[in-house]
């Protein structure tokens, strides 16, 4: 019996073939996927995921897990002949435990749906990123997603207490722990978080919830140089107990997006613009303290100017500039590079990297922004007449420089295929060897997302 007959006999309508396989399954948001898979399985339960994997494993057919397809590293893109397991039907909130402050959620649940459910129960789900409407909890965990509020509550991995996964041979490993302290041997969940679908398929997770803030105070600040950005960050971390975001934009990024959005926040475009955000809890004097903090920073010459949002709507105008959606529209084949560097070195790195890129690609747009408080820098790069693949020539210029600064070639987007061949710039031979041994132990036939992360 063929693998498709086997799958269809066991899973019926959950298996799509031929014309029923739509464009959705071709590429993630990197737009580098070129192939449709041979078949798509859309399981609605952990048992169905296990059935699909054990059949594919028995037939030695490679399987690509797909979540919301918002990944930027090519990790969910199928090769010709691959089978896809799409998690879109395995969706829903299983439980919110108010005493434990946890949410048990199925992997295919869109992040925004999980966030709303937490808020309805009076909690904050701290995982948050621009793709919240489409990305899924399983994809967030598989990529160990970051985002704009990492400075307060950590990356995805820091907000997971328990996990359920299905291994390549169909074994279900249910580790749906709700406790903060649990030192019972190896921490299995951490094998799968950030493994980009190469070690197992995540089907369910227990996430940590936090108290829901009553609101947020947001300021947009103008600074003269990177040294001031770092000093301002350190002071904010020391003095603002609810600091929830610290986002820096270099001049050309800020100017480009202000112009595209038709906004003029400052008389002249500053060398650096920082969005500072603080969670508040409805206590007296919180706004005054925030204003006093900014007033002191102005008086000390750390910042040159500051605008405090008077409403949520005004705060959104700051965030729209930072999110830079206009760039996707206006710059051809935009590449958003995502690297990590020691915080004190980011300014120098950006200067050196900007010069190297301008020399190599004189007609390119290059600009910098990032979650500087988490040591994460993004580089917006676009060259006229390049397609999504050729635009990645930029990688060979940027990643060796990142290595020279002892940085990481991926802060939050993961490795997928797009960074796979540069992984040795950030990981030693011994580390890569351990990764291969783990992969071989958990997936001896190499059927799970082959060619992703490791060659
Ligand atoms: C506008 C925009 C903003 C973004 N902002 C950020 C940001 O701030 N921070 C950040 O970290 N990322 C960001 N991203 C990247 C992306 O949204 C994240 O990587 C996200 O976590 C991917 O989730 P997904 O469900 O779309 O996964 P997919 O793209 O479908 O898959 C990503 C990887 O995870 C694997 N996978 C998916 N689901 C599972 C599962 N259930 N079990 C095992 N493996 C699985 C896939 O095989 C693939 O390797 C952004 C993307 C866009 C388009």
What does this structure look like?
This protein is an alpha+beta fold and 455 residues long. The chain has 4 domains: 3-86, Uridine Diphospho-n-acetylenolpyruvylglucosamine Reductase, domain 2 (2-Layer Sandwich), CATH 3.30.43.10; 93-211, Uridine Diphospho-n-acetylenolpyruvylglucosamine Reductase, domain 3 (2-Layer Sandwich); 215-325, 2-Layer Sandwich (Alpha-Beta Plaits), CATH 3.30.70.2190; 331-430, Alpha-Beta Plaits (2-Layer Sandwich). It is built from 14 helices and 18 strands. The strands form 4 sheets. A 7-stranded antiparallel β-sheet has the order 15-12-14-13-17-18-16, with helices on both faces. The chain has a 5-stranded antiparallel β-sheet with strand order 5-6-10-8-9. The longest helix has 15 residues, at 346-360. The mean pLDDT is 96. The structure holds flavin-adenine dinucleotide.
Write the layout of secondary structure elements.
Elements: H1 3-11, E1 15-16, E2 39-41, H2 46-58, E3 63-66, E4 83-86, E5 93-97, E6 102-106, H3 111-120, E7 123-124, H4 137-142, H5 150-153, E8 160-166, E9 172-175, H6 189-192, E10 201-208, E11 210-211, E12 215-223, H7 226-239, E13 243-250, H8 251-261, E14 272-280, H9 286-299, E15 305-308, H10 312-323, H11 325-330, E16 335-340, H12 346-360, E17 365-371, E18 376-382, H13 395-404, H14 429-442
Parallel strand pairs: 2-4, 3-4
Antiparallel strand pairs: 1-2, 5-6, 6-10, 7-11, 8-9, 8-10, 12-14, 12-15, 13-14, 13-17, 16-18, 17-18
Helix pairs in contact: 1-2, 12-13
Bound molecules: flavin-adenine dinucleotide.
The site of flavin-adenine dinucleotide has 37 residues, from strand 3, helix 4 and strand 10.
């Amino acid at each position: 019996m063929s693998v498709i007959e086997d799958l269809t006999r066991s899973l019926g309508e959950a298996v799509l073939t031929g014309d029923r396989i739509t464009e959705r399954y071709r590429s993630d948001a990197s737009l580098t996927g070129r192939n449709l898979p041979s078949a798509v399985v859309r399981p609605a339960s952990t048992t169905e995921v296990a059935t699909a994997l054990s059949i594919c494993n028995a037939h030695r057919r490679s399987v690509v897990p797909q979540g919301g397809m918002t990944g930027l590293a090519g990790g969910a893109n199928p090769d010709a002949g691959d089978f896809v397991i799409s998690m879109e039907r395995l969706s829903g909130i299983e439980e919110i435990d108010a005493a434990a402050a946890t949410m048990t959620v199925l992997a295919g649940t869109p992040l925004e749906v999980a966030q709303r459910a937490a808020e309805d129960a009076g909690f904050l789900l701290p995982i948050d990123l621009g793709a919240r409407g489409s990305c899924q909890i399983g994809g967030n965990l598989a990529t160990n997603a970051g985002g704009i509020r990492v400075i307060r509550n950590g990356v995805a991995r820091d907000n997971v207490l328990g996990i359920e996964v299905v291994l390549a041979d169909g074994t279900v490993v249910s580790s749906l722990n709700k406790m903060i302290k649990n030192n019972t041997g190896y921490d299995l969940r951490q094998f799968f978080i950030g493994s980009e679908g190469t070690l197992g398929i995540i089907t369910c997770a227990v996430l940590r919830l936090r108290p829901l803030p009553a609101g947020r105070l947001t300021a947009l600040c103008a600074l003269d140089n990177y040294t001031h950005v770092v000093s301002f960050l350190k002071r904010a971390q020391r003095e603002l107990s609810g600091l929830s975001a610290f986002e820096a934009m270099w001049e050309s990024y800020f100017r480009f997006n202000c112009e595209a959005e038709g906004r003029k926040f400052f008389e002249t475009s500053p060398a650096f613009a920082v969005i500072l955000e603080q969670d508040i809890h409805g206590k007296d004097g919180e706004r005054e303290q925030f204003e006093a903090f900014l007033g002191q920073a102005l008086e000390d010459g750390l910042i040159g100017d500051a605008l405090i949002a008077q409403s949520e709507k005004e705060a959104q105008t700051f965030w729209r500039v930072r999110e830079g959606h206009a760039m996707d529209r206006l710059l051809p084949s935009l590449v958003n590079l995502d690297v990590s560097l020691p915080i004190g070195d980011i300014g120098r790195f950006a200067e050196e990297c900007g010069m190297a890129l301008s020399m190599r690609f004189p007609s390119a747009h290059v600009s910098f922004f990032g979650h500087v408080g988490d040591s994460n820098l993004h580089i917006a790069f676009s060259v006229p007449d390049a397609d999504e693949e050729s635009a990645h020539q930029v990688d060979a210029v940027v990643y060796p420089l990142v290595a020279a600064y002892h940085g990481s070639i991926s802060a939050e987007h993961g490795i997928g295929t797009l960074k796979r061949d540069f992984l040795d710039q950030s990981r030693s031979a011994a580390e890569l060897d351990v990764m291969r041994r783990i992969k071989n132990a958990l997936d001896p036939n190499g059927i799970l997302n082959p060619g992703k992360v490791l060659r």
